[in-house]
Specification:
The chain is an alpha/beta fold. It contains 12 helices and 8 strands.
Amino acid sequence: MARNRGRIGIIVPSSNTNLEPDCALLTPPGITLHFTRVGGYDVDGIPDGEEMRHFASQSLSAALDLLTPADVDFIAYGCTSATLASGPEFDQRFQAEITAKTGLPAVTAAGALVEALSTLEVSRIAFTSPYVAQLNLESIAFLSECGIEVVNHVGVGRDISSREQGLLTPDDAYELGRRADHSQAEALVISCTDFRALEALTALERDLDKPVVTSNQALMYASCVRLGLDTSAIKAGGRLFVEHSPKARD
């Protein structure tokens, strides 16, 4: 298979073990993925809003210097909570700074969630994540500023570390999704790039009969939009990929 249709560069938090395999499941033929990792947070600590804002403030220069020599066409920033905790204005500046430093288009996972919901034409959602309660509320405030109403939300019910988030199972994601769902929600959002939510997406869309958006799915969809790629055959991407292929929108 030819490898000449595009290269996506992805910045991954150092403890994240689920973003890369999810992206592999969502990659169109001929596209290659190129990853670099960033630290600057306590992987065994509890990632609250303050910790995530501190993480978002870390320089990406070293990571970008390692990534851009791969001649990538696009850069995706793979931590949702870092910019959710920092607000939409920060998120937009953050994306713009990556572009200014590299000359390449960029998107954050948080920005990709908002774009995905816009594509689906939904404004009322149910929300869940493995975040601490305070960070969930900051995420809801971010979405509200973007015109998205969260009609119900649930968390895991305990504070867990960044490393523990990655150890949650697809069954955990499914259970949280079912608990978060609400009759007034037009879609379900499951946030966090280190949460195995993608593997629960198909079952949740079937059982809830509504679109489900996960951080990793949204991040890869936004990448495919920028590159004008056909996503309609990627069933793992759910309704967003199959029914809203960027190629079909041309």
